[in-house]
Amino acid sequence: MMRLFCSLTLNKTNKKETKEGLELGLSLSYYSRVFLILQFLPLLSRSPHPRVLTILGGHLMSPISDLSDLQLAKPGAFNGIWSQKNAIAMTNLFLERLADEQKESGVVFVHSHPGFVNTGNIRRGWGEDSWKSIAIDMVARPAFWAMGTGLEESGERHLFLLTSGRFGGDGKDKAKNSKGKQGPGLFLASAACDARDLGKSIEEQREKAQGVVWEETMKVFKPYL
Questions:
Q1: d(CA 98, CA 103)
Q2: What angle is formed at CA 119 by the lines to CA 113 and CA 125, rounded to 5 degrees?
Q3: Are 107 and 50 in contact (CB under 8 A)?
C-alpha cells in the first residue's frame, strides 16, 4: 500500500531511466531484486532451509498493461501507478517460474505486501523540502497513525514470514503456494502474514504473460550473468 500510495503522487513527467535504459522505478522495484536473487541461488541451494523474501505488493496483482512494452517506453504509456503494477505482476510471474526451476533445491519464495507502513517513501518524487512534499506528508501522517503499521511491528511480521514453517516448511497449518499446493514454491503473503490465493487473476497472467516476462527479463540480464 505504501508504494502504491506513493505512486499516486507521481505524474507522467517524473519518468527517469538508468544508464542501461531501464525505467528507474521498475529497475529498483523489480530488476535489481530478481537479479540479486539469481546471484544468490548457488549459496541458497546449499542451505538446509533456503528462503527468499521480497517486500512489494504480494497479492496486489493486476494484469500487465502492455506485454510489448514492459518498460512503459511508448509515448504516453508511463505513469507511477503502472510502473508499480508492472513491478508487482512481473515479480510474481518471474519468481513463480524460478520456484518451479528450483524445486529440487527446495528454495521457498515469499512475496509480501507489507500494508500501510510509514517508511518516509511517501515524499519520493517531490523533493524532500518542497512544499508539495511537506503537504503530502502532513496529510498522510494521520492516515498512517490511524491505519498503518509501525516499522518495528512490520519487521516482526516479516521475520515471521522468513522463519515460519507454514510457508513451504514442516509447520502445522501449512499455507498453500501461488499454485494452490503445499510445499516449496512462491507464497503471496498479506500484511497479516496470510498466504493469499489469486485464483484466476494469476492463472490468466501465467498463461499469457509469464513466458514474456521471463524471456524479456533474462534478455536484460544476459550481459551480466
A1: 9
A2: 100
A3: yes
End-to-end CA distance of the chain: 33
Instruction: Give the integer Cα–Cα distance in Å for 108 and 51.
Output: 5
Specify the length of the chain in residues.
225
Residue type, 87: A
Whose cell is 506528508? That residue is 137
CA distance 33 to 29: 7
Q: What is the pLDDT of residues 88-107, one digit of tens each?
A: 999 999 999 999 999 888 89
Identify each DSSP E strand in the chain by its residue range: 51-55, 108-112, 186-189
The range of the structural domain enclosing residue 63 comes to: 2-224
**Number of domains making up the chain:** 1
In this predicted model, what pLDDT tens digit does every residue of 183-213 receive, in sequence order?
899 999 999 999 998 888 888 899 999 999 9
